[in-house]
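In response to reviewer comment 3 from the previous cycle, which asked for concrete evidence that the modeling workflow produces usable outputs, we include below a single protein chain processed end to end. The sequence was submitted unchanged, and the resulting structure tokens are shown without manual editing.
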Amino acid sequence: MSPTFATYDGHVPASANHGARCVRNVRSAYAELRPMQPSRAWNHPVCVKRMLKCVCLGAITALLAFAPAAYAAQPGPADIVYRLSVTDRANGTLDGTERISFTNSGAVRQHDLWLRLWGNGPGGCALSAVRVRVVAGARASDPTLGCTALRLRLSHSIAPGDRGVVVLAISIALPETNARLGRHGTTHLYGNAIPTVAPIVDGRPALGPYLALGDPFVTTSARWDVSLTYRANVMAATSGDVIRRSSVVDGWITEQLRAPSSRDFMIATGAWRVTTGQVGGVRLRVLAPKQVRNSAALFGVARRALRTFTGWLGGMGRDRLDIVITPGLESQGMEYPGVVLSEPSEETVVHEVAHQWFSVLVGSNGATQPWLDETPTTYVQLAERDDLGWCNLSNPLADFGTARLDWTLAQFTRRPGWYDAVYAGGACAFQVLAQDWGEARVLKMLRGYTTAERGQIATSDDLIGAIRAAAPAGYDVDGWLRRVRLAG
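The workflow returned the following structure tokens.
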């Protein structure tokens, strides 16, 4: 079972009403400070000063009605650093060690740490593609949620502000399938395979189930230091910058890699031909099997898209992008920090490049709010290709029954035929704004949104708030929300 966490519902008991005004001042300070670092807001001098004032005024009962519930929220691991040392073997196994260090950014001692083993999602416990053994720092409970979640009981509780460390031995066995987690021919794709810390969302670990539809993931940006050893007869595409690369030793190459701020760490290896070039300050590579005949055309499309999106949205936050072309890829395409998987399709390449801003640079909860990255991604993809003239602007979701744009993945799973609402329907919803405001204003709004939410886990309220702030004076944003079936 998932743990139960207390939350504050905004109600102050009658016995504490004489201190309600004081408590509202504390709540106001917390609300203002929470966005910059939710779990540290309580320790900020402004909050501390206002809480002390409540005590001095004798409003202790009222303050306690608020504070205990807030402090009962799960302390959040922050400043996460992953140190990974792994070997990609010819049989499609990645094994080695993973060291995870973190700061307890909460106000109470931290006793456990939740990990997500998303690589176990497709096959569940029966396959257990991702296996973890704790080497030091904790004791593992039984995995849950189809073996996609693992609770670690820390050997020593971590005081607020202190750092904790756990060390794992990991082994990832790729199934024989042409998917984001799989091996196909000489290609090995380790998508969503490396165990990651479950982020704290609304005061509790994000412990949603794996869903086959869409991308049910939510992860926190962290630092990655990786040592990757792989066969000398293949190439590697990863989420990290190469700091050092060894010469070939007994048929193996070792690379030291670093990603200062990355939500995940993708590793792909294969026998590819490479097309490479520079786009501004970004090194762009297209890596494709020899049978792919349109590599040069795909590189040109990717280069144009990268240049266009950078002009519209600002930099994507990293200086390299690898596009791994995989004919027949099960999901057609998938994005990771600095790495794109795509079938040899121009439309898919452009879409996945756009995800470097929506999903990678600005994170979201793909299970609860799938529209939040797919809708702006599809909009800029189609705008770049001038392919939005077909939209039904009076009813952008007309082709998707009663589906709402803000449905969760679980809701779309019950009606999978309507899932394209977050892609085509959402793009047309933004095209309504472009028609009403002008495209330049919509793109300026999206640039402001990606700048403000860079490195964060954004919510629907954040994007809708950006739309409200950017709307021309007198524009009926609520009417637009109703038309495109969004709660605002």
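The longest helix spans residues 295-313. We consider this sufficient to address the reviewer's concern, and the full set will be provided in the supplementary archive.
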